[in-house]
Design a protein that fits this description.
The protein is α+β, with helices and mostly antiparallel strands and 89 residues long. It has one domain. Helices cover 22% and strands 37% of the residues. The chain contains two helices and six strands. It has a six-stranded antiparallel β-sheet. A hairpin with a 5-residue loop joins strand 4 and strand 5. The longest helix has 10 residues.
C-alpha cells in the first residue's frame, strides 16, 4: 500500500483520507449519513470523507484556534513504515 494522505478541515469538521491522488477525484458516493467514498473515473475508491469527525463540544478550544487561522491540518501516513516499526517494537 502506498502512503495515505490525511487531512482534517476544522471549519467543516471533516476528515479526508486519501489512498490515491486527490486530483483524480471524480465522484463521492454516500456510504452512510456521515461517510463518503471518493472514487476516480474508473470507479476505484481513492479516498474516504468523514463528516462531523469531532463530536460536538470535543476540544472546542483547539478547533477554535485552528478556525481563527483558517488552517487545514494534513499529514502523510506510510503503512509500510508503520508495519516495520510495529514488527521491531
Amino acid at each position: 500500500m502506498e502512503k495515505m494522505k490525511v487531512y482534517y478541515d476544522p471549519l467543516g469538521n471533516t476528515l479526508h483520507i486519501w489512498f490515491g491522488d486527490p486530483r483524480d477525484e471524480y465522484i463521492t458516493e454516500e456510504a452512510d449519513e456521515e461517510l463518503g467514498l471518493v472514487k476516480n473515473k474508473a470507479g476505484e475508491i481513492i479516498g474516504i470523507e468523514k463528516l462531523n469527525f469531532l463530536p460536538a463540544g470535543f476540544s472546542e478550544k483547539s478547533v477554535d484556534r485552528l478556525q481563527d487561522r483558517d488552517q487545514i491540518l494534513g499529514f502523510e501516513f506510510d503503512p509500510q513504515r508503520y508495519e516495520r516499526s510495529a514488527a521491531v517494537g
